[in-house]
Each structure stands twice: as structure tokens, then as C-alpha cells.
Design goal:
This protein is of the alpha/beta class and about 450 residues long. The protein is built from 15 helices and 19 strands.
């Protein structure tokens, strides 16, 4: 066995994706609308804000999807939801100081491109009326090629979209049929061309490995096709098979899924092809061209990780709007009510829809820093850790030193701090879990680490 195969055998246990620390299974109802109001109103002049808007509807249900969304063939539920979203935007906007500047906005889902062109304009108008936007704010939208037409392309350009994010998954027809995601290469190419024609400066494509009936050959063909389109960023995610959480995933035949070694081979093949094509590896699952802002952030130590994954956003706070969305404030995290009907009732009453969260304790902040640095830079500086935090740093450093002594094939610890070895980079999630004192508590279940 190669050293990486040995590591794969060791790190086969499911672990969190670490888009937060503590992770979402440890949120509780002790964080409520009153807590959220206190945290939001504490933001002040000189601080920046990123916004996430969740549209939890799709006009088709992809069976691989683990997002909070629901299928509808009618537009009426979407239109009604938007009116409720307007209420939340106005309520939140009244709490956020106009001196707090929005530097980034992301529309996710679901399928935000289901919105009619006039509703795209209305939604952006509500946001701009409620919050102070920086002139150069990045505005990104997740796009489903099956939703898009010329009027929607024009509307997206008119509202100022700067980044187009497209889910691709795999172009192989058998794989697509099995996951109920039919999307041709030509459709994808047309979306990218249409958005670039309208001045969108950056394009991101999401690929998946570990899908049913996916092989090294189908993986190679999909990656080659995507490279030919020259997107600025590519996310290469492992399919998270969690049918206990997302019942529709039970429609995917488990005997058609590759095993852990098969998944790893697919991931390695794709990563190698992307590197050969000039894409720089970013963290555990992103790739970017050298002049992309994500690649620049990774090279300069400014790469961050939040609920949207890897980002070059440096905002002081992230506020999620819409059902199930998650917010990250300096004091902690909260999540909105996932059920759309109950979410609508809550926000239409003039209140926030916050139902759970967690307030960060001093040691949580130190461990969150360590876990984020391992996920973003494969290690952390002991000096920086001690300079930033007071609580828990000696214990964390002792844990890192002990782990390095016991696992010399995985990492090193020296006067500069803790650092994974190159062959252990794909297993950063598993190494980060070493520093997670919440893991094992509660009933949270997680997806495969690679």
C-alpha cells in the first residue's frame, strides 16, 4: 500500500466538514431572536457584513442534494415566500447600523434562478434599501442552467452579479439519470458564455466525485469538459450520502456507489488533471486559476472558511436570510427555522426566525481558529495562536505536540507550529477533528471524510 492508501484506511471515519466550530449538530435553543438582536445591534462603524439569501425551492429535486429545499412546479409558493423574505430583510435592516457595509452577497438554494426576472429586481431592491452596500461588493448567484433564459440572464446582469456559480456534478448521462440531474455540457457552456458576455467577471463550477455509476473514465471526461470552459474556480466535492437526514437520497442505489478507495482514486484523478491545467489547489476541495481572488487569498494566508465553504471574504459577520439559513457573528452562530411555513409565520409577525445556535466560549474561539487554519492552510502557528487567544491555548498546543509525536507520518510540530505533511493534505478534515472537543457528544452524524 502507498502511504496515502494507508492514511485513507486510517481516516475512513465520518467527520464534520468544519464550515463552523462548534458544528451545527451542537446548536441549541438557548440562542433565540433576543440573542440574535443583541449580536446584530452590536455591529458598528468600520465593520463589514456578508449576506446570504436562501431560496429553498427547486423545480426538480436532485436526489444527491443535501440542501434545505423543496420541489415545486408552481410559482405561487415561491412568490409567497419572497414576500415573507421581504419582511425578514426589512426587520434585519432596521437592526443593522447603516455604518456597517455589505461587502458580499450570495443567493443560494434551492435554485435562485427559478425567480422571475422582475422578482430578481425586487429582491435586490429590498436588500439595497435595507443595507449599505460597498460599491465593489461581490454578488454571486447559484445558477441552474435548466432555469435560465435571456430575460433572466439580463436581470442577473442588471442587478450586478459579479460571480456565476454553476452546479455541474457529472456530465455522464447514466450518472445524471441516477441522481435525477439532467444537464448537458452544451447547456453549461451556454450559461457561462451568456454570463461572460454580460460582463460577469468570475465563474465557479461545482463537481462531485463518489456518485453512483461514476468511474475514473466518466470523471476524466467531465473534468476535461469543464477545463475546456476555463471557469475561474472549481469546487470538487465528495458526494455526501446521508439518507438518514435526506430521505430522497434513498432513491440512489447504494450498491452503485464507489467504495472509499474508489472515491479517493476519483478525487486524485480530478485533482491531478486540474493541477496539470494550471489550477491551484485550495484547501481540501477547491481549485482556482492563479489570478483568481481565492488563489491569491490562499497564497497570502487570507483564505477563510464559513458555511458557504472556502472564501476570500473577510467580513466581520455573515447574516443568513431565509428559511434554514445560518448566520455567523463575532459572538456565535444562529440558524433560522428550516420549515418554510413556520419561517414565514415568524418573520411576518415582525420577529426573527432564529430557532437555535451557539454562543462562542473563549476556548471555542481558539479551537475554531486552529480548525480553520488546518482546513485552509494545513496547519497553524503556535505563536499566532497564543497572541490571539488567552483561553485553552496551552492545552491545544500540548494536544498538537502529542499528536505529532504519535503520528509522524501525518504531521510535524516544530518551533513554527503544527503542519500536515503533503500526503496528508486530503485528510485535513480528519486531522482537524483531533482538536474538536464537541465531537462524539450529541447525536450528530457526518459524511465520509474523503
Amino acid at each position: 500500500m502507498t502511504s496515502q492508501q494507508q492514511l485513507l484506511a486510517r481516516f475512513s471515519e465520518p467527520v464534520p466538514r468544519y464550515t463552523s466550530y462548534p458544528t451545527a449538530p451542537h446548536f441549541h435553543d438557548g440562542v433565540d431572536p433576543t440573542t440574535a438582536r443583541q449580536w446584530v445591534t452590536a455591529l458598528g462603524a468600520g465593520q463589514t457584513l456578508s449576506l446570504y439569501v436562501h431560496v429553498p425551492y427547486c423545480d426538480r429535486l436532485c436526489w444527491f442534494c443535501a440542501c434545505h429545499t423543496k420541489h415545486t412546479l408552481k410559482y405561487e409558493p415561491v412568490a409567497a415566500y419572497l414576500e415573507s423574505l421581504k419582511c425578514e430583510i426589512e426587520t434585519m435592516g432596521q437592526m443593522v447600523s447603516p455604518e456597517v457595509v455589505v461587502t458580499g452577497l450570495h443567493w443560494g438554494g434551492g435554485s435562485p434562478t427559478m425567480l422571475k426576472p422582475e422578482d430578481m429586481h425586487r429582491l435586490m431592491g429590498w436588500l439595497r434599501a435595507a443595507f449599505t452596500f460597498a460599491e465593489d461588493a461581490e454578488i454571486s448567484v447559484e445558477m441552474d442552467p435548466n432555469d435560465l433564459d435571456e430575460a433572466r440572464y439580463d436581470a442577473l446582469a442588471e442587478i450586478g452579479v459579479t460571480r456565476a456559480s454553476l452546479g455541474v456534478q457529472d456530465f455522464d448521462p447514466k450518472v445524471q439519470k441516477t441522481i435525477n440531474r439532467l444537464q448537458t455540457f452544451e447547456q453549461t457552456a451556454d450559461v457561462i458564455a451568456a454570463m461572460r458576455k454580460r460582463g460577469v467577471r468570475s465563474v465557479n463550477c461545482d463537481l462531485l466525485y463518489g456518485l453512483p455509476y461514476q468511474t475514473l473514465d466518466t470523471m476524466a471526461k467531465t473534468v476535461a469538459d469543464i477545463i475546456s470552459l476555463k471557469p475561474d474556480r472549481i469546487a470538487l466535492f465528495g458526494y455526501a450520502h446521508v439518507p438518514w437526514m435526506k430521505k430522497h437520497q434513498a432513491l440512489i442505489p447504494e450498491n452503485a456507489l464507489p467504495d472509499a478507495e474508489g472515491r479517493f482514486r476519483q478525487m486524485s484523478l480530478a485533482a491531478g488533471m486540474l493541477a496539470e491545467a494550471g489550477y491551484e489547489a485550495i484547501g481540501i476541495d477547491h481549485f482556482a486559476l492563479a489570478d483568481d481572488t481565492l488563489a491569491k487569498a490562499a497564497r497570502t494566508g487570507r483564505l477563510r472558511r464559513n458555511f458557504q465553504g472556502y472564501t476570500d471574504e473577510s467580513a466581520d459577520a455573515l447574516i443568513g436570510l431565509g428559511a434554514s439559513s445560518i448566520s455567523q457573528l463575532p459572538e456565535g452562530y444562529w440558524q433560522n427555522m428550516p420549515a418554510t411555513g413556520e419561517y414565514r409565520r415568524m418573520v411576518e409577525s415582525g420577529d426573527l426566525a432564529v430557532v437555535r445556535g451557539v454562543a462562542l466560549q473563549p476556548e471555542d474561539r481558539a479551537r475554531a481558529f486552529v480548525i480553520e487554519r488546518i482546513m485552509c492552510a494545513y496547519g497553524f502557528s503556535a505563536c499566532e495562536l497564543k497572541a490571539r487567544f488567552d483561553a485553552g491555548t496551552d492545552e491545544i498546543i500540548a494536544e498538537a505536540q502529542a499528536y505529532a509525536r504519535e503520528n509522524p507520518e501525518v504531521c510535524d510540530y516544530d518551533r513554527f507550529g503544527f503542519r500536515l505533511k503533503n500526503e496528508a493534505f486530503p485528510f485535513a478534515r480528519s486531522v482537524a477533528a483531533v482538536f474538536d472537543t464537541y465531537l462524539g457528544r450529541g447525536k450528530g452524524r457526518h459524511s465520509a471524510a474523503v
